[in-house]
Amino acid sequence: MAGPHKRFAGLAVNLSGPGATVTSIDALKFTAIVTNYGAEPVKILKYGTILDDKLPTRSFAVEKDGTTVPFRGVKLSVSLDDVDDSAFTIIPAGESVTVRHDVTSLYDFASVGTGNFSFQPVTNFQILGTNETFKTVKQFNKIAIEAESMVVQVTKDISKRELPQVNKRAVDICTAPEQKAFIDDSYIEGKSLAAYGASYINANGANELYKAYWGNTTTSRVLSVFNAVANENSSSRTIFFQEVPTIGVCSRTTVAARNIRGGTTLHELTHALSGTSDVSYGCAANQALSDSDKFINADNYNCFATQVYANTRCG
Length: 315
Prior knowledge:
One of its GO terms (molecular function) is metal ion binding. By secondary structure, the protein is of the alpha+beta class. The protein is about 30% helix and about 20% strand.
């Protein structure tokens, strides 16, 4: 596993699945056993990792012949200030947790054709002490667990499967004019933040702030993501949340809080327009990723653009 996450020998991931060759993607069901060999229990944020077996999120990096297979599932923007114990998995010392994944509908196998597919569990974990109550992302310890991938050859049926239907929102919060205006404004502010981010990079190049969020990634690649959001004009994007206007970062909140509505919309639009992923959440955690993960992590664009606004627009 590349990147500056600490190596951690206390956890191990064992992956099992179908045989080496299957005729249909319907057989692509995997079981992961995560064992804690350490002397103390661990509390792990499960979203966007192999431990998340409840939501259709990206728990595997899937490739065919070195080419990434497009992910079709849910990409989250997690409000870390609002997480509760349901966001974590606790593994007592000497015990294991078993999770099961059916990836049949979560990846676009049809777009790459039949062949050999590699399934690598996502095991960059953010952990807390089991007795800790989460208050700030600074509490997280970031660890990387080495896990063997599985290679499965699919010989015939790779046609696209429909994603299971989920209830995206229990209540339609867009019916009230004030709430609709809030969401409309967040869309405008998200595009503006992207433009600020692009303008800042054009003016300052790969300076210290840039390197904190993208390392040695070329500026042209990052600019392409920001420009896609800044120039987006679809009327069909639907984002729902309760947060504060961009100007709030100057007085009411902080960049690290990640509760700027435009930043959240920017995060989501990078998913829709540039195919970014959710590798990590929290500005400090985002900066600790490898360069390759920094580039594809949606939250890096949120944190960077919001920091640019705070640095250049707050008097």
